[in-house]
Write a structure and sequence with these properties.
- The protein is of the alpha/beta class.
- It has one domain: Rossmann fold (3-Layer(aba) Sandwich), CATH 3.40.50.
- The chain has seven helices and four strands.
- Strands 3-2-1-4 form a four-stranded parallel β-sheet.
- Helix 1 packs across helix 2, helix 1 packs across helix 3 and helix 5 packs across helix 6.
- The two termini are 19 Å apart.
């Protein structure tokens, strides 16, 4: 059984074509029934905002946005309340000049002792500095 914390940047790679889409496909499509992917509860909102940006600024159709949102909702993400990591997320954000929502993923990974999967470089640097184990998305292959 393996558990990972996944951030919105990695989830979006699964939903919208990007540099690591093939790896994100492998991550989400090759999970065993005992593997768990966790994310702060706001991850779905953050991903939905990225979908909105794709419609607003990059020409994604409304129909594609609706399909992408359905795909997001169908992902096997265990959503974790952020209340327990807010203080630590603020500390990390201030220490590394990192947005608190990005810091929350780092805080969750640190507190839970689960590896973090992200493609966000500032988040990666903060996680490394905090001693969080990182699982490169490139480790996942179909």
């Amino acid at each position: 059984m393996t558990t990972y914390v996944v951030d919105a940047s990695a989830v979006i790679e699964y939903l919208v074509s990007g540099s690591y889409t093939v790896n994100a496909d492998a991550l989400f499509n090759r999970l065993s029934p005992v593997d768990t992917i966790v994310a702060p509860e706001f991850c779905l909102l953050e991903c939905t905002n990225v979908i909105w940006k794709h419609v607003r600024f990059q020409g994604m159709s409304r129909q594609q946005a609706d399909k992408t949102l359905r795909d997001l909702r169908a992902l096997p993400l265990k959503r974790v309340p952020t209340k327990s990591v807010l203080h630590y997320a603020l500390e990390i954000g201030l220490k590394y000049q990192l947005a608190v929502y990005d810091s929350a993923y780092v805080a969750l990974a640190k507190r839970s002792n689960y590896p973090l999967i992200t493609v966000d470089q500032p988040q990666t640097r903060a996680a490394t500095a905090e001693g969080v184990t990182l699982k490169p998305i490139t480790d996942f292959k179909l």
